[in-house]
Amino acid sequence: MPRKLRRPKMRTDIVVPRWLRHWLTWGDFSAACTIADEDGDDPFDLFAGVDEHERAWAAIVDDALSDFVAVYPGSRPNAWWQWTALELRQVIGGTYRSILGVGRCHQTGVPYIAVDRDDPPLIESTPALLDRLGLWRPGERARVSPDAFTPQIFSFDLTIYPRREETA
Fold first, then answer.
1. Residue 122: what are its φ and ψ, rounded to 5°?
2. Other CB atoms closer than 10 Å to residue 60's CB: what's the count?
3. Burial bucket for residue 124 (CB in 10 Å: 0-12, 13-18, 19+)
4. How many CA atoms lie within 13 A of 115 on its CB side?
5. Is the pTM of this model over 0.85?
6. pLDDT of 83-118, one tens digit each?
7. What are the distances in angstroms from CA 84 to CA 3, 51, 87, 153?
8. Which of 73, 107, 138 is where one domain is finished?
């Protein structure tokens, strides 16, 4: 009899070092290294296998999103785009083509595309994606400006997500 294949659940009972929690939440390498040094950890563990980072993200995702959204409502951190996002931001009109074999910009959810600079495409805003997919955190949507929902003309600035100024 055929058996339904199931994806194994990730363990979420792992201990995530403070520096890795900072790196996954804020994407700030310099601050993560400082925290690792303060705690006597090796910051080069940042370059450990992606599987370990994905498991760590699964363990902290709720707290990390709450912290990030408190500072940047209507936005998401790198790790969310890499391991949690259900889909990419949509490309709306303009002239572009997908680059085969490359899925997404892990920092912003903007698809990797080749762009005609004379007719750049519009990219769905992150708040519009969150709205479309119903992915708002409690109280987050009310803190986002109505202007944030308008599509954005593609530029390479869209592949950079906001940086937090202070360190944890």
1. -90, 145
2. 18
3. buried
4. 18
5. no
6. 898 888 888 877 766 665 555 565 677 776 767 777
7. 27, 14, 9, 25
8. 73
